[in-house]
Structures are given as C-alpha cells and as structure tokens.
Write a structure and sequence with these properties.
This protein has about 100 residues and is of the alpha+beta class. Helices cover about 45% and strands about 30% of the residues. It is elongated and about 55 Å long.
Length: about 100
C-alpha cells in the first residue's frame, strides 16, 4: 500500500509532519514523499516512489524528513487497515441481522 506524507523542514532544522499552512510558509523546505511497502513493513523497509520538494535542504535534513515521513506512512497504513477492518465487521453484522 502506498502513502503520501508531507514534511516541512523548519528554519531551526526540525521537521514537521503534515505541516500547517503557517509551518509551510515559515519552512525552509516542504517535501512530499510517496512511499510504498508491505502493509506491516517497518519504516526502514518502505521504498520511495516519488518526492516533490520546494526549497533547499541538506542531505541530513532530507534524511530526517524521509525518516519522519516513513514513520508517518506506517501510521497511515495502520489507520487505513483499521478502517477497512471495521467496514468489513459492520458489513458482516448487517448480513447476519
């Protein structure tokens, strides 16, 4: 399953996942990563499919942003799976009634 995650690199070097408009406006760079990997794959095993970037970042900042995006992608996959499982449960309950 693929996930897209936006990350802002703030002036002090910190990264903000899913940045607000204010964070994006203040950011040195904003990167959107499209990551793919097996549903339960740890963040380190996610593969970068594409990156869209505005602004400039160092290699270290890029690596930090990618690590944050990979961790967030795992949460997106988990949330999506929970929603799907819940929908299946509801459908099964409706069929049983």
């Amino acid at each position: 399953m693929g996930s897209a995650v936006a990350v802002a690199v703030l002036p002090g070097g910190a990264v903000a996942v899913d940045p607000t408009r204010a964070e994006e406006a203040a950011a040195a760079a904003v990167l959107t990563f499209v990551l793919e990997g097996a549903g339960d794959a740890p963040a380190a095993q996610r593969h970068v499919v594409a990156v869209d970037a505005s602004g400039a970042v160092s290699e270290a900042q890029f690596a930090a942003a990618l690590a944050a995006a990979a961790a967030a992608a795992q949460h997106v996959v988990t949330f999506s799976r929970m929603g799907f499982e819940r929908a299946v449960q509801v459908r099964q309950q409706l069929r049983a009634s």
